[in-house]
Specification:
The protein is mainly α. Helices cover 62% and strands 2% of the residues. It contains 26 helices and five strands. The two termini are 55 Å apart.
């Protein structure tokens, strides 16, 4: 792989604009080489394919000697006149170079761009280092409080003071807090090493292993601290509302200590990942700078890289070791305090390995996909061979069995579409794992997602094949109970796999999904995060799946499944819940918008909530029209559906996707696009409008078709909505990714456990 591609592949996606623009600098060198070729066409001929950085050009350069590369160079004098100066006020670097009049325009342009890019990198790196140093100071302060809390919880009667009445540990006779002396000693030793040998040491080692002048953490800090426990359960949220405060006084309980330790562990982990990426940013830019200067020297036969590499090494980018030192200290602190001194365990947490692609996953993916195709073909052949489409039991089958299996069709289609989303997110470098908040190394790839969908498809299609009978057994006047229970058995298996506590079938991803579902169901009692409202949006496209689940309960609970008969549509309870389950997903999104409006004070969330409320009205009117008919209900359904469709379509394209910007760099799109082909965005907008209109088929008079059953038509419309949601998913996350890029947000903010305040006349 060429360096340019490797350089791009290793970038932090959200920091892409802050990296050295290697490609533009390379393009400037190509322009310079083309100019040189026009002057000496025979000496530097380009290849037929137009490549300008040709290795054959090196065969015609002057020989630089064996012992001294630049001793006999005809341009040695000009090399000496390449100067790089640093502005003392803002630390910006500027290159001054003497070249011939013909080449001056090209090289000056190159060095101006090089200086601009290098200063950009140094400025960004300096800013980020300052941020992590400030964050490290805050983490250190939090660790002081955590250690003091540990000591207080372990020994509630202890009193750390500087006076002669300081408490003494009852067991070993040392002052309380001695169990943490080795930790403090290690930190102090590191600080002593940083101070250097010329500065006096502030402590001396006793012969018996104690530390002279050791000062344990003071419990006085706990008098100025409140525990910061974010509402994570409905009960804690309600308590926060009743008490009108989320910051509770410390009670010095073990539960409180455990919670603080978990938050600090997560904060240290996230901080460590930030340091690693910042170190990688520094290294990659240094490497890119070195590579581009070597290309420059090959083209111009100059020795400019010597001066510029020296400049890079003496700049802030090459001399600042704050990040490396912080990495070492974070590792030592994490291993000591959160891994019980186990280096391997601590580093495994800090540096989780990425999920490895396994050959068996690929094998089973191919196997299940092939089996699914074979089962579909077998079902089609059986239907035509037996003439099931003309059978008298066809209507009975479509009204009773088809809705049961359509549930699996909706789920499988949604998983397939989501697999495609993952593939294209990775292809266009959308950092979906960070946006969704997946734990590093546990996120599913498109192969794993497609593997699960194909496996579920095999089970469902096998059930359909076994349950394809259209006629009753004449002797019993009923269908076989075992085959009629197959759909219910598949649902039980699916739920069992989802709730299985064992580490099988991607447990971390299953639990992540279950957690998000709980947050959606309990809205607005949980703080709304992106993964929560993103999942709730997916649920709004699965209304027919919820109605299928309702039909399962009615059909197997109160119907006669052996004779494929039920009276669900005549039950007022069923009709009521048929109405409610269609509204629940939109109601959840409305409550989430209300929660964000209250917390974030963002008026757009209020408008978003009104959008979902308009959809609730439209769904209610359409459902009422389906049940009651009549011209009045039809007019109400058409009007409300039209309003909801227009509002939702506008919100999808303009707000969620960020498109239709008239004055953007890409007219009618947005300034930044990840897909090079702009027509894709226009096609997606048109498809979104057309697929949005599909849900109006029930009020536009297209409920029946001569060649297709009404139940199948409803399923097709539901599938179109799932496909529309898949298209929405990609562009919604693309827009979110670009927003993070614009603000250089590459890390999630982790709440710290302690808040500090000052008492009257006191300070910490």
């Amino acid at each position: 792989m060429k360096f340019g591609k490797e350089f791009v592949s290793q970038m932090v996606p959200e920091w892409q604009e802050a990296y050295l623009d290697y490609n533009s600098l390379k393009a400037l060198l190509k322009d310079l080489l083309r100019f040189q070729q026009t002057r000496t066409p025979t000496a530097m001929a380009s290849t037929p394919n137009g490549s300008v950085l040709n290795r054959r050009a090196s065969l015609y350069r002057a020989f630089s000697g064996l012992t001294s590369r630049h001793r006999d160079s005809p341009r040695a004098k000009e090399d000496e006149e390449i100067l790089v100066t640093e502005d003392g006020e803002d630390g910006r670097y500027q290159t001054f170079v003497t070249v011939s009049d013909e080449e001056r325009g090209y090289e000056v342009k190159f060095f101006n761009e090089l200086d601009h890019e290098f200063n950009k990198v140094v400025g960004f790196y300096k800013k980020k280092v300052k941020e992590v140093v400030e964050e490290a100071d805050e983490l250190s302060r939090q660790m002081d409080t955590l250690i003091a809390l540990r000591l207080k919880v372990d020994n509630p009667m202890v009193d750390f003071g500087d006076g002669p009445n300081s408490a003494v540990h009852p067991i070993n006779g040392r002052r309380a807090g001695g169990q943490h002396m080795d930790v403090i000693e290690e930190v102090e030793m590191m600080e002593d090493e940083d101070r250097g040998d010329n500065e006096p040491k502030t402590r001396t080692q006793k012969a018996n292993g104690g530390i002279e002048g050791f000062k344990p953490p003071q419990l006085e800090i706990l008098e100025h601290v409140k525990i910061n426990v974010a509402p994570e359960t409905p009960v804690s949220t309600l308590k926060g509302i009743i008490l009108n405060s989320e910051n509770q006084e410390l009670s010095f309980s073990k539960k409180e200590l455990r919670k603080a330790e978990e938050q600090m562990k997560q904060a240290f982990n996230e901080f460590y990942q930030k340091l690693r990426l910042l170190k990688s940013y520094c290294f990659l830019n240094q490497l890119a700078f070195s590579k581009i200067m070597k290309k420059h020297d090959k083209i111009t036969s100059r020795n400019a890289s010597k001066v510029h590499l020296n400049m890079m090494e003496t700049s802030y980018l090459g001399t600042c070791d704050d990040v490396t030192r912080l990495i070492e200290r974070v590792e030592a602190t994490f291993i000591k305090h959160f891994a019980n001194g186990n280096h391997r365990k601590g580093m495994k947490t800090l540096r989780p390995t990425a999920r490895r692609e396994k050959h068996r996953s690929t094998f089973f993916l191919g196997l299940f996909s092939g089996c699914s195709i074979a089962l579909v073909v077998a079902i089609i052949v059986l239907i035509h061979a037996r003439g099931l489409l003309e059978s008298e039991g066809r209507s009975l089958y479509m009204e009773n069995i088809f809705p049961l299996y359509s549930l699996f069709g909706f789920i499988v289609l949604h998983m397939v579409v989501f697999s495609a989303n993952i593939y294209y997110w990775r292809r266009y470098r959308v950092n979906f794992s960070f946006i969704f908040g997946f734990k590093k190394g546990t996120e599913l790839g498109y192969r794993q997602s497609f593997l699960m969908s194909s496996g579920l498809a095999v089970l469902a299609l096998a059930g359909v094949l076994s349950n394809l009978d259209m006629e009753m057994d004449p002797s019993t006047q009923s269908f076989r109970a075992l085959t009629e229970l197959v759909p219910l058995g598949l649902v039980i298996v699916l739920v069992g796999i989802m709730l299985c506590p064992f580490n099988i079938v991607y447990r971390s991803s299953r639990f992540f999904l279950i957690q998000a579902v709980v947050h959606c169901v309990c809205a607005p009692l949980y703080k709304v995060t992106l993964q929560d409202f993103f999942l709730a949006d997916q649920l709004t496209s699965q209304v027919q799946a919820f109605r299928s689940l309702e039909f399962y309960i009615c059909y197997y609970g109160w119907g006669d499944f052996k004779k494929r008969s039920h009276n669900c549509l005549d039950s007022h309870v069923y009709k009521t819940f048929y109405f409610i389950v269609a509204i629940i997903p939109y109601w959840i999104r409305s409550l989430q918008c209300l929660r964000r409006l209250v917390e974030e004070k963002d008026g757009m969330q209020g408008l978003n909530g009104l959008k979902y409320f308009s959809t609730i009205v439209a769904v209610a009117m359409r459902t009422s029209f389906d049940m009651k008919k009549g011209m009045t209900w039809k007019i109400l359904a058409m009007t409300s559906s039209f309003v909801a469709t227009v509002v939702s379509t506008y919100w999808d394209i303009v707000i969620d996707w960020g498109l239709l910007r008239r004055n953007s760099e890409n007219r009618w799109l947005r300034d930044k696009l990840l897909i090079p082909n702009k027509s894709v965005y226009f096609v997606a907008m048109v498809l979104n409008v057309l697929l949005r209109l599909a849900w109006m088929q029930s009020v536009l008079g297209f409920r029946e078709a001569p060649f297709i059953h009404r139940t199948a038509l409803v399923a097709i419309v539901a599938c179109l909505e799932i496909i529309r949601r898949g298209i929405w998913n990609f562009f919604r996350l693309e827009n979110e990714h670009l927003n993070n890029v614009g603000k250089y947000r590459a890390f999630k903010s982790v709440p710290l456990p302690f808040n500090y305040y000052h008492d009257e006349g006191k300070s910490i």
